[in-house]
Structure formats: structure tokens, C-alpha cells
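Quick question, first post here. What does this chain look like in 3D?
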Amino acid sequence: MKAPHPPLSPALRLGLRYLAGLGEAGRARLLAARTGGPFRDLVDFCRRTRLPRPPVSDLIRAGALDSFDIARRQLLWTLGGLHYQEEALIETPDVEADLPELTEREAMAWDYELLGLAPNDHPLRLLRARLQRQGVLSAAELAMQSAGKVVKVAGLVVVRQAPPTAKGHLFITLEDETGLVNLIVRPDLATHSLKLPSGRADSLPDWKFVMATGMVQRQGSAVNVVVTDIRPFTSADIG
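> Answer (accepted):
Ran it through. C-alpha cells below.
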């Protein structure tokens, strides 16, 4: 899927399988139609693939049709002017519309809704200025802190585990736009504050974004945060 603003350097594209709404049959139909040459425009795409409107809308919102060099909102507007009858496309006159540009936040929300990830950016970047006002460090800033310092960090939960040899400790890895943050949650915090059975990482609440306060621990080049407080957050929770 092509990025809204392709970089000059080589870029990684996501496969169609990431778009759950397309389905195996839809992917096969699209790939078969593509063997006939590049799609000229949205109408040509719809005529040749004969895909129903909902998956075409999802493809537009996920950026898969950005190669037409038309804003996604305008493509959705054009799609709304096309009608399908028994898989036969009937084109209706296009009506001009003054549509607002898609914001970064809106584009990222569509990416997470449709793909489960944002291939072009990280949501924490959009929140960084507000997080900084609350004293929250990025992963890059955390790497420069001295051992024993109390810090506040935040990020997207990407790993959580409790090895049998860890004696009830939980290990959580957060991701932000600059890197990874490793959290160590002691057994007492896990069992009393989070109310989890000892050593049960799979019982950790299904939090997407986490904010944590704790003490910096350095072991060689590794930097961890030994957590004293941890909680979920959304963008609405950040002042």
C-alpha cells in the first residue's frame, strides 16, 4: 500500500492481507485484475476488480489507491457517485466538492482501524508536545538518564511477559516514536495495584497505551524503568 507522501528513499509496503475487510476472495479478484496492467483511475479499478463498495472504501482509506494522486476524501466522494448493479458498475456524473484535507490524526486513526498499525508514523509523535508538558520522557531521552532517577514514560504496549523464573515480576515493553522502553513491574505492584495473579502476564488488562512512573535502572547498555505507578491512558487523558 502506497504512503500518502512517498519518501524519496525505498519504502516498505504492506501486503493486502493486512486489510481484514478485503478477504481472501477480494484479494484474489484484485490481483487477477491487476495482471491486465496498471489501473488508470478509480472507475477503471472498480470496473476491473468488480469489488463491492465497502472493501473499495477500505482500500482508499488505507492508502492502497494513493497512486492515483487524488486525496483520499476526494476518492471516497467519487466512489459515492458510482453505483453497482449485479457487479456491473454504472458511473454517474461527478459533482464537485470542496473537501477538507485529511489530518495526520485522521489518517492515523484510519490506519489503526483498518490495518491495526500505522505504517507511516507513530501515534506518540502526535502527542509528544502534550506529553512533554507533563514531564513524560521519550525512549531516546530515557536512554540519557542516570541510574536512580525517577522518570515518567509512556508508549504503546508491544510486549508483556512473565517468565517462570522471574518470581512474579512482569516485564512490559513500550514503543514510542523514538524507540522502546522496558518496564519492570514488581510482584507487589502486580498483585496489589494491578490486582493480577502472581506471574500472570496474560492477565494484564488489555491496555493499548500505558503511562508509567518509576526509577531508572542501568545494567550495562540496558536501561529499564522499575515501575512504582502504571496506568492506561488515551489522548483525552493528556492535558
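DSSP finds eight helices and eight strands in the chain.
Residues 16-115 form one domain.
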